[in-house]
Amino acid sequence: MEISNDTTCIDCYLETFEKSLSFRKYKPSTLDNYRCLLRPFGRLLDAEGITPSALTPDLAVELGQRLPATPKSQVKIPNLARLFVTHLIEIGVATRPPLTPAQAERTELLGNFETYLVRQRGLSPRTIYHVLRFADRFLDHRFGDDMLDLLALNVRDVVAFMEYLVTRKRPFRDKTPETALPNSQHGPV
Known about the structure:
Shape: globular
Structural class: mainly alpha
Mean pLDDT: 87
């Protein structure tokens, strides 16, 4: 891991980024690793003359793909850069790009699903977070960037998604995706 003492344009946001992740139960060693991995990203922004306020999630991924990755690293720099920019958007540094109609539809559906999980199922915030992440991954796997067609969903779609999850090189951090994917008996998706 490369360590540098020079300050980059993102350094002043790393502490709040780490705090936001520690609230989500990220380990201190993971946060230290993220800080080290984000330093080259900050240097790239400085070299390109890109301010943190000008970042979008897509631009962060594009820039992150230009950075060298270590083959053994489980953390992919483009994904970490997107997570960091999402934090910048949440704290008001960067501006969220306008949603496409498909993104707006998905956001509304997931918002309604979250309301259902809170009011009808009484799940904990942590469980709701994980369930929503799996639901979003499922929708992404099934529909990509297209508009949702919920009437077209069937059991084969769920099975295909589960097969995708278990056949990946590195599984998701979550250990029980099957419990996060509701079926028709448990309520709306």
